[in-house]
Design goal:
The protein is built from 11 helices and 10 strands. The protein has 386 residues and is α+β, with helices and mostly antiparallel strands. Strand 8 and strand 9 form a beta hairpin. Helix 7 packs parallel to helix 11. The protein starts with 19 loop residues before the first strand and ends in a 6-residue tail after the last helix.
């Protein structure tokens, strides 16, 4: 998510109301006219407006824009009267089992509203698929910057860069310090056996994707990694609330300085489980000086190698001090992280082959996933250390 205002360059029929309805697809490079067709599969503007009128009260104006940055669940920016909103829904078409669970995301974000974990304000959720063709939820829009491809100019100083890393890891520590029972999440998952199930779950996601993608090319490094992970699951693990997708471009920093982390997004994979999976995931996206170029540059920025940003080891030390949780078995957790990213990529590739996405990143997974498989093997062999 970004703080760009929703666009309103394409008018939709207001059905004689005499008030404003605007719909736009911000689009992605190379989409052409296909973007409008895809947007129509995501949302019926009049049905969404009627739902919001019923839940939040009637509004004289309505504007809708699809956010182009996310690569999993779809994000729609909505202006409903004087409210700036975000709607989260799954992509269209068949999805892998347990993927894209936006109602699970709604539940955890709603539960964390009164905790130290910064989350957007939740407003309502909908299980009636006659509205948008899928479950969805609505939250208030948060102002600030997501650090995805570059750092904001106001952060381009060593002390502010250091603070970005500290805010990121401190917020992860606050997530792992939440008492699930105190916020109604004591039944949110099965922490016993969680890490074993992670390996099994993501290998099943691969199998689902390979049903279609294997006809295009094989990925032997993934099969080798699956075997290694299965044989090296740590025997003793802590248990906390976990985010499941915690990294720099899933959080937002407020518009001022010094850097302040104001919201954590994308909770669809959250559960109760092993917090070291979150830390390993975050570290796998953090680029240190001397690291190899990312296997998929669109999914990993390299600006954290600049002067001032903490190194991965610094982040681990700060996390351990804040939580009392020792980050053991680093090779396993970072390999699992890259393996999960590769599984997501292979699911993206299947969706591309089946015509269920217009994201220009998805066809790049034909080469990107094998490159991630090779990265898994480098971590396993100790060639890409902490």
């Amino acid at each position: 998510m970004t703080d760009d205002a929703p666009g309103s360059d394409t008018a939709a029929d207001g059905e004689g109301r005499g008030d404003d309805v605007h719909v736009a697809d911000a689009g992605r490079e190379g989409e052409g006219s296909h973007g409008d067709d895809y947007l129509a599969r995501l949302v019926d503007p009049e049905r969404l407006r009627a739902f919001l009128d019923a839940e939040l009260g009637p509004a004289e104006s309505f504007a809708l824009e699809r956010h182009p940055e996310g690569h999993s669940n779809e994000t729609l920016f909505v202006t409903h009267g004087d409210r700036d909103l975000v709607v989260r829904r799954p992509p269209p078409g068949e999805t892998a089992e347990t993927a894209h669970d936006v109602l699970r995301e709604f539940r955890v974000v709603d539960a964390l509203g009164d905790t130290p974990v910064p989350v957007p304000e939740t407003l309502c959720a909908c299980e009636d698929e006659s509205v948008l063709g899928a479950d969805f939820f609505v939250m208030a829009r948060t102002a600030g910057d997501v650090l995805r491809g570059a750092e904001p100019v106001r952060f381009a100083a060593p002390d502010r860069r250091r603070r970005v890393g500290e805010e990121l890891v401190d917020t992860l520590a606050s997530i792992h310090s939440v008492d699930p029972g105190a916020v109604g999440l004591d039944d949110f998952g099965r922490p016993a056996g969680f890490t074993d199930r992670q390996v099994d779950r993501w290998s099943r996601q691969f199998r689902w994707a390979f049903e279609v993608t294997a006809d295009e090319r094989e990925v032997p490094a993934i099969h080798e990694t699956t075997t290694w992970l299965t044989e090296h699951v740590p025997g003793s693990r802590p248990e906390t609330l976990v985010h499941g997708d915690y990294k720099l471009d899933n959080v937002m920093f407020g518009p001022g300085t010094p850097p302040e982390l104001v919201a954590v997004f994308d909770w669809e994979l959250s559960t109760l489980g092993d917090p070291r999976t979150d830390l390993g995931w975050m570290l796998s996206f953090w680029h240190d000086p001397g690291d190899p170029e990312p296997a998929i540059p669109e999914l990993q920025s390299t600006f954290t190698a600049r002067e001032g940003y903490p190194r991965r080891r610094d982040l681990v030390d700060r996390y351990e001090a804040a939580t009392g949780i020792e980050y053991e078995h680093d090779r396993f957790y970072r390999t699992l992280a890259v393996y999960k990213l590769a599984a997501l990529g292979e699911m993206f590739f299947r969706r591309h082959l089946e015509g269920n996405s217009d994201d220009p990143l998805y066809p790049k997974m034909e080469a990107g996933v094998p490159a991630l498989g090779e990265r898994c093997l480098r971590i396993i062999e100790g060639d890409e250390g902490l």
